[in-house]
Design goal:
The chain has 142 residues and is of the alpha+beta class. It is built from three helices and 13 strands.
Amino acid sequence: MEYFYINPDVAGGIGRGTIMDTSVHPPVVSKLIYQMEGWFGDVIITTFPCFLVVSEVKQALQNIGFSGASFAHAEITKSDDFLELQPNVELPQFVWLKVNGKAGHDDFGIARDLRLVISGRVLDILEDFGIPSATVEPYDGR
């Protein structure tokens, strides 16, 4: 199977109320509040060290029996800039994608340089749903 690095769109950041242990690297997040700054349609978004996907992608991933991640609730808030610049944008439901797999082995994994690695079949799903702002490149095993 082929694997790829993916750099999802950073559509926002860690919101007030997030619970995160920053005494370790990468930080360990136990409660995620994602503050949306601007969203342009990507079905996977990020802010270090977290990833989120829209609920339709969650369902599609569950349908293929994916490996290397689980899902959890994330609260989504909108920044003042988002409300001012994108007042008519309706956000889809996002869920927290908690990656715990091995890069180059599972469908989701984190490389040694902390980049997200996905399988070709996950990339196909993400591309089908839309990742216009993400960058993708072949995984080199590092």
